């Protein structure tokens, strides 16, 4: 096994140009666009927020909730409960907030599936890399590793909880944005007419009118950063765990931390570059990457020099 080539190949597994990042950003932007459409619909002229919602709007909402639950597995449904349980579906305000949460839940599920898919891809790539040059690799171990990621039956896989932790914060913030808009919304056309009539000049639109759009845009930008951090960190954690298992299967007992060949590597990771850790003592986030959110460091196996072997024998 050429360790230098392996280190170079491992660094490419989660490259900044990986298309998975564009897929993630597209998911978040699509959710943002849907939220704008949702709130714009309820801000139409002469809407009464406290009036009972129309039967058609309530049906659209209940259909969306049912569709969402049908697309979720049991574990995901438990997480969705924090977003959807005990929500009233009566007034226009209720429906607007509930639709916002359904949208966020859908976004969370899609992001989680994207992270899962990338984790499976990483397991495949690591298995192929460590198996090449050794006459193949244990396909049974590979299948078990893939199942472990896709089934999410290990407590160490926390991507779903992390995703919905941030999704729940987003839902609460959107609730506040919607309530603020409900309390402050005034038809800008009516203001313009009054100003034009009283002053004889064209009136300026209500300054609160576009405030919700700005607030929502900023909040989704924050969510995009949160989800990107989860994708990178959880994917790198999967890569490190799989590397450690494969190295151990190949007979190695130690691994070494290597940083990216990049001038922007943080000082903390630079301090760990070259650190050797016993595989049995490796703990992701403690002594092996990811050492911090968005960490791109890798681990390679430590090959003993013949001089070291002779030294130990002597």
UniProtKB/TrEMBL annotation:
Keyword vocabulary terms for this entry: Coiled coil
This protein's record includes keyword Coiled coil: yes
Residues covered by the Phage head morphogenesis domain: 212-300
Family matches, as InterPro entries: Phage_head_morphogenesis_dom
Coiled coil: 51-86
Protein name in UniProt: Prophage P1 protein 40, minor head protein
Organism per entry: Lactiplantibacillus plantarum (strain ATCC BAA-793 / NCIMB 8826 / WCFS1) (Lactobacillus plantarum)
Source species taxonomy: Bacteria, Bacillati, Bacillota, Bacilli, Lactobacillales
């Amino acid at each position: 096994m050429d360790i230098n080539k392996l280190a170079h190949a491992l660094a490419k597994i989660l490259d900044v140009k990986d298309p998975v990042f564009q897929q993630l950003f597209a998911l978040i932007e699509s959710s943002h666009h849907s939220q704008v459409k949702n709130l714009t619909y309820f801000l139409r002229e002469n809407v009464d927020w406290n009036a009972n919602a129309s039967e058609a709007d309530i049906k659209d909402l209940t259909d969306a909730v049912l569709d969402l639950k049908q697309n979720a597995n049991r574990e995901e449904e438990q997480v969705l409960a924090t977003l959807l349980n005990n929500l009233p579906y009566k007034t226009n305000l209720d429906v607007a907030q509930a639709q916002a949460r359904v949208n966020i839940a859908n976004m969370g599920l899609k992001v989680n599936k994207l992270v899962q898919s990338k984790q499976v891809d990483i397991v495949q790539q690591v298995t192929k890399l460590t198996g090449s040059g050794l006459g193949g690799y244990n396909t049974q171990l590979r299948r078990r590793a893939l199942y472990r990621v896709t089934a999410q039956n290990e407590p160490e896989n926390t991507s779903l909880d992390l995703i919905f932790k941030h999704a729940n914060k987003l839902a609460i913030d959107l609730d506040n944005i919607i309530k603020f808009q409900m309390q402050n919304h005034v038809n800008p056309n009516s203001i313009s007419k009054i100003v034009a009539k009283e002053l004889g000049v064209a009136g300026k639109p209500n300054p609160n009118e576009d405030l919700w759009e700005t607030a929502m845009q900023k909040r989704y930008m924050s969510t995009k950063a949160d989800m990107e951090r989860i994708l990178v960190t959880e994917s790198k954690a999967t890569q490190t765990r799989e590397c450690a298992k494969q190295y151990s299967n190949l007979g190695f007992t130690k691994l070494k931390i290597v940083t990216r060949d990049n001038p922007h590597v943080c000082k903390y990771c630079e301090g760990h570059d070259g650190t050797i850790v016993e595989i049995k003592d490796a703990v992701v986030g403690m002594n092996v990457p990811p050492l911090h959110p968005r960490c791109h460091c890798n681990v390679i196996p430590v090959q003993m020099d013949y001089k070291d072997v002779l030294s130990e024998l002597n």
